Amino acid sequence: MAFTAGSLLREAGRKLADAGFESASLDAQILLAHVLKRSREFLLIHSDVVLQQQEQAEFELFVNRRLAGEAIAYIVGEKEFFNYKFKITPSVLVPRPETELLVEHTLVFLQKVLQNISDEQQKTIRYHDTCTGSGCVGISVKAMLPLIDVSVSDISKDALAVCKTNMVAIVGYEIPYFESNLLDAVPGTFMCITANPPYVSTDYTNMLMEKKLKEPRIALDGGVDGLDIYRKLIPDAYKKLQEGGALLVEIGEEQALSVCEMYSKTGFTDITVYKDLAGHDRIVFGVKNEVLS
After folding, report:
1. How far apart, in whole angstroms, are the C-alpha atoms of residue 84 and residue 190?
2. Which residues are within 8 A (CB) of 55 and not within 5 positions of it... i.e. 6 or more apart?
3. What's the CA gap between 194 and 150, in Å, rounded?
4. Which residues of 125-141 are buried (b: 16+ CB within 10 A; e: fewer)?
5. In which region does residue 123 sit, left (phi positive, over 0), alpha (psi from -120 to 50) or beta (all else)?
6. Chain region(s) in the chain for CATH 1.10.8.10
7. 269 vs 287: CA distance, rounded Å
8. What tens digit of pLDDT does each residue of 36-56 get?
9. CA-based, 20 to 30 A from 9: which of 52, 103, 206, 214?
10. In sequence order, what DSSP letters do the residues of 189-238 get, joined into one string?
11. CB within 8 A of 142, min separation 6: which ones?
């Protein structure tokens, strides 16, 4: 029996809503658009288009995967971030909209550094993104500031494989990358370092896993209080930063005070917390010794 896009979207949306998915209609639209290789807007305008049997079967499979708790990005294999499309697999964390703030504030800092210097001098400005995962932060910065020297690192070889694919797709070539426990195997010093590290407590990570969350534990679990990675990263980054360089990290919404204390004890100045659109503390910024005027 043939079904139209509209009838399939209504049925899938009902199933997803009944299962507690807040974005049920949107999820159904994204999945069907992927099956048909069309835009969501096309589906809304052409709700009477009839699907072939194979297309119906593929859509039903995708909806069932979503009902089982699999992220939309893993099902369709990509996620838009900072206006770029990133390949996403279960080896990496799905990029969140709030992480775009990390890119935005990094660009603000770097653009301040780049003011009034030549293109040739820009090439000497070094920036590194650790815990890079899909590469969404580091690659987005490189795409926006192509002249600066950008590198990335991750402890996961599988994550770096995904990241390399995204490098070529978005900036056209591979940028330097390192398989490293944070900054341990990363050479040189930098004007800016960023990280979106695992910051979920182990107990909460366990609860997420029990709910069949499909994202990698290594990208989520930050220890008993979620702060283990920061305890190593912040002092290590301080040593790797040039004078006047900045460290920007993403944090959990209740971690600002603890992370700021670590920044301060390490020697960072101009420590600033930026909130996300929901009003939650999300990014911590700090400068090594001197503050740029």
Report:
1. 25
2. 35, 36
3. 11
4. bbbbbbbbbbbbbbbbb
5. alpha
6. 5-68
7. 5
8. 999 999 998 999 999 999 999
9. 214
10. -EEEEEE----B-HHHHHHHHHTT--S-GGGTB--TTS-HHHHHHHHHHH
11. 148, 150, 171, 175
- Enter the tokens of residue 84: 């770029």
pLDDT of residue 205: 85
Q: Are strands 177-179 and 149-154 parallel, antiparallel or unpaired?
A: parallel
Distance CA 141, CA 104 (A): 9
The SS3 of residue 4 is strand
Rounded Cα distance, 69 and 79, in Å: 17
**How many C-beta atoms surround the C-beta of residue 214 within 10 A?**
16
Check if the beta carbon of residue 139 is closer than 8 Å to that of residue 171.
Answer: yes
Q: What is the rounded CA–CA span in Å between residue 236 and residue 36?
A: 48
Closest C-alpha among 98, 79, 97 to residue 30: 79
Q: How far is CA 177 from CA 85, 130, 200, 229, in A?
A: 20, 10, 25, 20
How far apart CA 51 and CA 136 sit, in angstroms, is 34
The superfamily CATH assigns to domain 82-288 is Vaccinia Virus protein VP39 (3.40.50.150)
- pLDDT one-digit tens code per residue, 88-116: 999 999 999 999 999 999 999 999 999 98
Give me the sign of the Cα torsion angle 164, 112, 180, 220: negative
Closest CA to 174 of 145, 147, 144, 150: 150
For the cut 60, the answer to whether the pLDDT of residue 292 exceeds it is no
Q: Is the pLDDT of residue 158 over 50?
A: yes
The tokens describing 25, both together, are: 């209609």
Which residues 6+ apart lie within 8 Å of 53 measured at CB?
2
What CATH number is given for 5-68 in this structure? 1.10.8.10
Token pair for residue 124? 């000497």
Nearest to 219 by CA among 90, 118, 101: 90
Handedness of CA 227, 229, 231, 235 (dihedral sign): negative
